[in-house]
Amino acid sequence: MSQKFIKSQNKNSHSLAYRKYFTKAVYDNSFIETEQLAEFIQTQASVKKSDIKAVLDELGGAMKHFFELGQKIRLDGIGIFKVGFSSIGVVKLEDCGAANITTRRVLFQPETTRVVVGQEKKADGSVKQKYVNAITLLKDVIFEETHDNAMNATASSGSNSQTPSGGSNTGGGSNTGGDNPGGGGDNGGGNGEDPDQ
Question: CA-CA distance, 91 to 65, in Å (whole number)?
């Protein structure tokens, strides 16, 4: 199995990426629901599907509880979840408060794994390892082109273009996410992706 993609040309003449080609992810129109997730986990562990489903059904409520306490949640092998929000800017300090908070969101910072990709010999003769931080959940995902674009296609963030990222922060204020390197808010665009798709 693999993540499917199609090739798509940017037709926005106002874009710096005009007429460049990008890959777009293609997804199945159906979702993997809790039932199917529980069935799969049952094949990987010595726990009954009914028990797994009960835990998954309670996961949302448990996360909400800890978000209300101002906590960040780390799920091993998945990543960190926390609350983020936008707020309206005001001139006076005394006018700044909870009433200024507009858009609320859940920020997600995926877990990463260090992967060695080679070695570099330095001038002094020592050897330094070169590595990248790969997102654990995506490390082994295989990509495959498809010509079936009847499914929903959305812009991927892996294209190697030199276009600047685009988009803006919804809510008209500052995006508050704390220590979330590498994303998590809904600021459109990302490194190398087509900002106009």
Answer: 34
Orientation angle between helical segments 49-68 and 34-44, nearest 10 degrees = 120
Res 28 pLDDT > 90: no
Dump the DSSP string for 112-174.
Answer: EEEEEEEEEE-TTS-EEEEEEEEEGGGTT--EEE-S--SSEEEE-S-----PPP----TTSSE
C-alpha to C-alpha distances, 106 to 4, 43, 59, 76, 98, nearest whole angstrom: 27, 30, 14, 18, 17
**Residue 162: pLDDT over 80:** no
Query: What are residue 81's DSSP bridge partners?
Result: 73, 108
Q: pLDDT tens digits, residue range 128-154?
A: 888 888 898 888 888 888 887 666 555
Whole-structure pTM value: 0.65
